Amino acid sequence: MTLAAGFAQAQDITANNIFYIGAGRSNDDGPLDNDNTPFSLGFMHQSPNSRLILGFDIGREGTRLDSTWSRDQDPRQATSYNLLIGGNLFDNGRYRTDAALLLGARESFAECPDSYLGYQCYADQEPETEYKGNIGAVVTVSVDRFTVGLRATGESAQILAGFRF
Fold first, then answer.
1. Which of 40, 65, 110, 145 suits a disulfide with 22, CB 3.0-4.6 Å?
2. Helical spans, DSSP H, in the chain
């Protein structure tokens, strides 16, 4: 009997993680804005005996003006690196709702001197990249192990799908 109780407790602890992928629509529509479909990958973890949720998220959203590879302010899709902090709003074992604030940085500009030998930059050096702040929210609803949700930032709105483990 004790073994079964320990197994049930281990199952509850391991179901406090969520992995998701998302895709959606860009909020940019100007002539110097990137038109590629934004997407993201994320992970959220709830500590045992706590409603606090921490996580991270990497997204391809927004526009980075690229002046590498002999281009001049070419609009490219930017990468964002984000932290998630939030809480569990509801959990009855089968159904669960979580919300988190998304805070991070997004590439805005990359430049370097032109290479004459076919490299990205002169003398194969790394480009200088500038970043801007990225803020938004993530809300997920889980039924058993399946998770759906929304991710919204100043750069994109995305629908999420994932799993709880």
1. 40
2. 2-14
Sequence letter at residue 55 = G
- Beta-carbon-side half-sphere exposure of residue 117 (alpha carbons within 13 Å): 6
Number of domains the chain contains: 1
How far is it, in rounded angstroms, from Cα 109 to Cα 85? 27
User: Is 153:4 a contact under the CB 8 Å cutoff?
Assistant: no
* Domain ranges, residue 65: 17-164
- Cβ(14)–Cβ(6) under 8 Å? no
User: Quick one: DSSP state of residue 124?
Assistant: G
What pLDDT, in 10s, does the model give residues 75-108? 889 999 999 999 999 999 899 999 999 999 999 9
CATH classification of the domain holding 79? 2.40.160.20
Backbone angles phi, psi at 34, to 5 degrees: -75, 140
Tokens in use for 62? 């927004």
